[in-house]
Amino acid sequence: MSSVGSVVRRIASDGSTRAALILLVFFLIWAINARNPLESKDITDWLVLALPLAVASIGVTLVIITKQFDLSAAGVITLTSVMMATSFKETNVWIVVILVLAVGALIGLLNGVFVVFAKLPAIAVTLATLIILQGVSLILLVRPGGSVDENLISFVTGSSESSSSAFFPRPALILLVLVVAWLLFKRTKLGIYMYAVGRDEEAVQLSGVSVRKVRLSIFTIAGILYALAGVFLAAAIKSGDATIGESYVLSTFAAIAIGGTAFIGGSGSAIGTIFGALTLMVMPKMLFVIGISGWSARVFTGVLIILAVLAGAVSAMRQGAKLKETTGEIDQTDADQWVERNGH
């Protein structure tokens, strides 16, 4: 019994595991209650639509881990998806993708400069960025339209390789690459410092690491991820829409909450966030097949998010208590060791 209890406590304390279990339950309910057996196309379509949300939410997760806030994701997604559908039509699509990612990096860098160096409130700066980018998007594309290069669509959706994508959908492969990239990134110095800054900024400063540089780098990487999400969104809908990004303002934070990232900073995982994004995109399908829709579905989603945030807060409090017990007082001489010890 004690071993079972320890396993349950371990699952309850790990945000990624909780999110994976929720996703599994919702997916099974959808699959079991669907009118027809799920086909590979159903799975691929679900993953294609979930991919932009997952990528954008990873970017927001990085910022939140450093104990900052970013509302600009939806604006960057909107602008970059519109750019992919309307701009540089005579240019090789992969060059356009690089240019779009550079735009995202620049926007993230500017957000970081205003927040980190000018010390302006992150919520105000990123909200302003969101509004500006939405306005620019409407200037570029007043009404939905435009077109996306077929090579990009095939690359993201795997539509040109139906035989292989039937066994392993292309969006799933992209998500797998993101998971591997995350596992590598969190073991780099920047990844370790990212967690440390969110947990104890003063200790990181004492270790000689520039907190400003860490946060500025994370804002920039987040901007690149938002732009990448915009590229994937353009490929998913095969056109541009200057209003479609509005849905990502809240859904990114919902995915993060379900994925177990604590909004107090210092903890979280891109893997949990991916599970959270997949859960959000499968939830409407699951609710529909069991006869729940409209406002009832929104209530269900809201309750799930509250429970996820509550579970994450309790887990973060327990981890914080354990951290204080094991680390005690940190002085300047052991600050470097503390940073290394608390990196993920």
Fold and architecture overview:
With about 350 residues, this protein is mainly α. The chain has a single domain (about 1-340), classed as ABC transporter involved in vitamin B12 uptake, BtuC (Orthogonal Bundle). It has 16 helices and no strands. The protein has helices at about 1-15, 15-35, 40-65, 75-85, 95-115, 120-140, 150-155, 160-165, 170-185, 190-200, 200-205, 210-235, 250-260, 270-290, 295-325, 335-340. The radius of gyration is 21 Å and the shape is globular. The two termini are about 30 Å apart. The model is unreliable at about 325-335 (pLDDT under 50).
Number of helices: 16
Query: What is the second-level CATH architecture?
Result: Orthogonal Bundle
Largest sheet: none
Measured by DSSP, the beta-strand proportion falls in under 5%
Structural domain count: 1
| Counted beta strands | 0
Radius of gyration (Å) = 21 Å
Entry keywords:
344 residues; mainly alpha; ABC transporter involved in vitamin B12 uptake, BtuC; 75% helix
Characterize this entry briefly.
This protein has helices at 2-13, 15-33, 40-65, 73-86, 93-117, 122-140, 150-157, 162-165, 170-185, 189-199, 201-206, 211-237, 248-258, 270-289, 295-327, 335-341. It has 344 residues and is an all-alpha fold. The chain has one domain (2-341): ABC transporter involved in vitamin B12 uptake, BtuC (Orthogonal Bundle), CATH 1.10.3470.
